[in-house]
């Protein structure tokens, strides 16, 4: 399934996100050279307060229930990058095509041999399919959360 921008989707399963939470646009590890002059001016003038909001990195977790709906904002298809096929994977494709196109015309013994060859190459083909890169998406959920660069298989098409 390939999702498209603007499509309504919902989470296919429960998600739990855990780790460091950082305010969007903030550098989680400010250095001495990253000095905000407005903050210094406020602090020097006494307008700023020490309420602990300077700490932008906190630990935590977030759980999102399956069925949470949202809209696809962006689709990034990584599949356009060619994943090099091994000789066995190429041979599997060639023999499978031969079987599909001419298998009904082949003598029974030849057909059996071809099916055996395809069967022996199938694990290599499955491994090749597993190496292909997937499609990632950016989804803005209805509750305001945004999931970015997540695999499309985490979502199903919404009924609404």
Q: What's this, in brief?
A:
With 160 residues, this protein is of the alpha+beta class. It has helices at residues 37-45, 87-102, 108-131, and strands at residues 8-11, 15-22, 57-64, 69-77, 135-141, 146-151, 155-157.
SSE string, helix = H, strand = E?
EEHEEHHEEE
| Lateral strand order in the biggest sheet | 6-5-4-1-7
Mean pLDDT across residues: 78
The coarse overall form would be elongated
In percent, how helical is the residue content? Answer: 25-40%
For the sheet with most strands, the description reads: 5 strands, antiparallel
- Uncertain stretches: 29-49
Strand content is 25-35%
Classification by helices and strands: alpha+beta
Rg computed from alpha carbons, rounded to a whole number of angstroms: 26 Å
User: What is the number of E strands?
Assistant: 7
Please tally the helical runs, counting DSSP H or I stretches of 4 or more residues: 3
Q: What is the terminal-to-terminal distance?
A: 18 Å
Question: Can you characterise this structure?
Answer:
By secondary structure, this protein is of the alpha+beta class. It is 31% helix and 28% strand. It has 3 helices and 7 strands; from the N terminus they run E-E-H-E-E-H-H-E-E-E. It has helices at 37-45, 87-102, 108-131; strands at 8-11, 15-22, 57-64, 69-77, 135-141, 146-151, 155-157. The chain has a 5-stranded antiparallel β-sheet, with no helix packed on it. Strand 5 (135-141) and strand 6 form a beta hairpin. Helix 2 (87-102) crosses helix 3 (108-131). It is elongated. The two termini are 18 Å apart. The model is unreliable at 29-49 (pLDDT under 50).
């Amino acid at each position: 399934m390939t999702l498209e921008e603007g499509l309504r989707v919902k989470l296919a399963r429960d998600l739990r996100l855990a780790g460091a939470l950082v305010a969007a646009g903030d550098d989680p590890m400010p250095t001495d050279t990253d000095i905000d002059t407005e903050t210094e001016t406020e602090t020097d003038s006494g307008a700023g307060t020490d309420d602990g909001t300077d700490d932008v990195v906190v630990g935590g977790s977030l759980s999102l229930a399956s069925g949470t709906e949202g809209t696809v904002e962006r689709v990034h298809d990584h599949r356009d990058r060619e994943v090099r096929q091994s000789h066995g994977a190429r041979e599997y494709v060639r023999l499978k095509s031969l079987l599909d196109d001419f298998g009904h015309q082949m003598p029974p013994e030849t057909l059996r041999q071809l099916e055996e060859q395809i069967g022996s190459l199938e694990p290599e083909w499955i491994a090749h399919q597993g190496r292909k890169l997937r499609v990632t998406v950016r989804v803005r959920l209805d509750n305001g959360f945004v999931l970015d660069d997540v695999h499309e298989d985490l979502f199903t098409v919404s009924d609404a």
